[in-house]
Specification:
single chain; alpha+beta; Aminopeptidase; 2 domains; nine-stranded mixed β-sheet; four-stranded antiparallel β-sheet
């Protein structure tokens, strides 16, 4: 079958790719062999719109289409050297994925300070086809992992109340942005002095403008003395009745009080009420890994594969 490469060059391409991810998700047994649509939205409304990894979506996406113009594969450049391959399971082949990686190596590489080019691709540890293809193209497995957790919401979620004095509620509007932004800083930059925090909370307006964002699934814990102590932001796709926790964290001064578990538990209970049947979380470091391991039931591992381009 002849497939045509279609570099993303217009706004409609994004939305066509988004629909494609929704189409193939159930065909992949509702596992993340391809991105959940929530991850594509987060890539656009956070990585691109806030982190400015590209000036436009078109710089980080390419499509492969059949003769009828139907998408059969999407290649995403997350930023830096990181890649994602999303392939329709009925069209998956080593030949197609080889072409996708060849395109990525030419167009989506990063460069070290001494001028060496490289690309990086996470591959599930049980995906021998993609591992063998990566090896044949000169990729080498590196230290590093991703733990991809999931839970089916077909049974009651055990309660996990917040400590006395803390309140669990939905995220508000603009008045909540400063406290929410500072909570993220304290959660993810706890080794840095607060003087490094620039006070810019405009990124949260970007997040709230994403199509799958809803405030009732943006759960926060407020501290007795005021301010936001912990948060769990979930994107829910009612088309596939599945969700992704896109941001979960606790400000460092409130660690080890069960707040992360409390906000995540509330989020899962709210998902159940909306008809969600499966939720995903991904961890790349120990604190998040411990939380998701305690909350979610199933896990798949991706390994890090890197290629230096000669």
């Amino acid at each position: 079958m002849t497939l045509n490469l279609h570099p993303c060059d217009k706004e409609d391409d994004y939305w066509h790719a988004r629909n494609f991810l929704r189409e193939i998700f159930p065909l992949n047994d509702r596992l993340e062999h391809s991105w959940h649509v929530a991850r594509l939205d987060y890539w656009r409304w956070h990585y691109i719109k806030t982190c400015n990894i590209f000036e436009s979506v078109e710089k980080g996406m390419a499509l492969w289409e059949n003769a009828d113009g139907k998408i059969v594969a999407v290649l995403n450049h997350i930023g830096g050297s990181e890649l994602r391959l999303h392939v329709h399971p009925h069209f998956r082949s080593a030949e197609l994925e080889n072409e996708m990686l060849a395109y990525a190596e030419q167009n989506y590489f990063a460069t070290t300070e001494d001028g060496r080019r490289y690309v990086y691709l996470p591959i599930f540890e049980d995906d021998t086809q993609r591992q063998e293809l990566a090896q044949s193209r000169g990729f080498k497995k590196q230290p590093g992992w991703g733990h991809h957790y999931r839970r089916d919401l077909d049974s009651p979620i055990p309660d996990s109340p917040a400590p006395d004095g803390f309140a669990i509620r939905s995220m508000g509007l603009a008045d909540d942005y400063p406290a929410r932004s500072f909570a993220s800083w304290r959660a993810f930059h706890n080794n840095e002095p607060d003087s490094n925090y620039d006070g810019d909370y405009s990124w949260y307006a970007n997040l709230q403008s994403a199509p799958l964002y809803r405030r009732d699934l943006d759960v926060v814990a407020t501290a007795p003395e005021g301010g936001i102590a912990a948060f769990c932001t979930i994107f829910y796709d009612d088309c596939t009745r599945s969700a992704v926790t896109v941001l979960v964290g606790t400000a460092a001064e409130h660690w080890r009080r069960g707040l992360g578990k409390a906000v995540m538990t509330e989020g899962l209970k709210r998902l159940q009420q909306l008809g969600c049947t499966r939720v995903f979380s991904t961890a790349h470091e120990e604190p998040a890994d411990a939380l998701y391991r305690s909350m979610l039931k199933e896990m798949k591992v991706t390994e890090t594969w890197l290629k230096e381009i000669k």
